[in-house]
Amino acid sequence: MTDPKHDHTAMPMTAHPGATLRGTVEVPGDKSISHRALLLGAVASGQTRATGLLEADDVMATAGAMRALGANVQKVDRAWLIDGMGNGALMQPDAPLNFGNAGTGSRLCMGLLAGYDFPVTFVGDPSLSSRPMGRVLDPLRQTGLQVEAAEGDRLPLTIHGAPLPVPITYRVPVASAQVKSAILLAGLNIAGITTVIEPVKTRDHTEKMLAGFGVHIEIKEDGDGARHISVTGQTDLTAQDITVPGDPSSASFAIVAGLIVPGSELTVKNVLLNPTRTGLFDTLIEMGADLAIANRRVSGGEDIGDITVRHSQLRGVTVPAERAPSMIDEYPVLSVAAAFAEGETHMQGLEELRVKECDRLAVTATALAANGVDCTEGEGDLRVRGGKVRGGTTVKTHLDHRIAMSFLVMGLASETPVGVDDTVMINTSFREFVPLMTSLGAKLS
Ligand code: S3P
């Protein structure tokens, strides 16, 4: 049956406790890097070749958008080939760009197109259409961008770049790699120097990749530790060969499962270990996790390694707000780990969770409480007092892939099974989640 609020036929699933998890797996490519490879490949000169690109719905929506803008994007054997249009040479699409559930793809693409003097309409699913776009549109308006949007700067919306867009200097008011990246991408097709000031460092894949494509990018730190990132617009980008490492956000589900399910020992290979993404692993180690990283190496300009975990008795810790940007997508699964830890885990600085695929702070707290976990939701923080987890209910996932995966992980170690009302959204980031967890021994039905 199609649920009108969900736009698709829901597929519920239940996770059963009791089986130990063992084995070695690889998770699919990093979502953030995959989006950026397609966007930059589309405006580069020549053919960009990406291996390990994430083939999940969110990234495929970005691939579709790049095709609609004129770039030829196709998979040949194991590689994705992107025939770039050249910087400034994207073409007006003849239909709205549909980004489905993809916040990153849509926001970065708004930036990429902000310097083009033609209209482009963005549409998405009910979750994406409820998320605030003003955070990227406001700075882009300062370049001269015209916007027609639904109430509160939400999708569906149409943007139209100025004939002569103006380069801006913008201090980002929230820690957001999407906002930073949208502005830097806009700067590519604006004559002059576009600068983003970032008081708190967020994932830096855009900066790294822009440099890789040959864009003149300068990064300076001021006395307060803020990063001033400047790009020079209207220069050529040169096509690149990109190897996309495994997504640490996807790896985190197997890693937390290995830590909370008694008797488990598992390895996730080739995981991206860029320090702007590893806050969860640092936190788990502080909580007493038996988590070891082997074979550390650099691949395609990014740190990667193999992570092995063994079942561990975790302890509650305080997770400071400064760490939030480096683990922003991992709080639902950290909350699950915290539910099995001794004592209280206090996660601070979680305001941004309220504007993710759903209000992740409220939805996580509600799901924990429904399964017998003692927790307190604050305005921008969450306290979880762990121990045994009763389980036994079906979690409402609100079109959020990470809520679905996190609570399936919980059900592998709770006293009674845990269900989720829908697993379809898992395809937005991690199609292989169910077979991968099952290959490790997880019982999912
Ligand atoms: C992302 C940035 C983060 C993160 C998202 C991916 C990116 O969003 O939650 O999953 O690739 O830039 P915000 O910029 O909203 O923090």
Overall description:
The protein is of the alpha+beta class and 445 residues long. It has two domains: 10-29 and 245-444, Enolpyruvate transferase domain (UDP-n-acetylglucosamine1-carboxyvinyl-transferase, Chain, Alpha-beta prism), CATH 3.65.10; 31-235, Enolpyruvate transferase domain (UDP-n-acetylglucosamine1-carboxyvinyl-transferase, Chain). The chain has twelve helices and 26 strands. It has helices at residues 31-43, 57-68, 103-113, 134-141, 177-187, 205-212, 248-260, 279-286, 331-339, 360-370, 401-411, 433-439; strands at 2-3, 8-9, 13-16, 22-26, 47-51, 72-76, 79-83, 97-98, 119-123, 146-150, 154-160, 169-171, 193-198, 217-221, 227-232, 241-243, 265-272, 290-299, 302-310, 318-319, 343-347, 374-377, 382-386, 394-395, 418-420, 443-444. A four-stranded mixed sheet has the order 24-25-3-26. It has a four-stranded mixed sheet with strand order 4-17-19-18. Strands 6-7-5-16 form a four-stranded mixed sheet. Strand 24, helix 11 and strand 25 form a beta-alpha-beta unit. Helix 4 (134-141) packs parallel to helix 5 and helix 9 packs parallel to helix 10. It is globular.
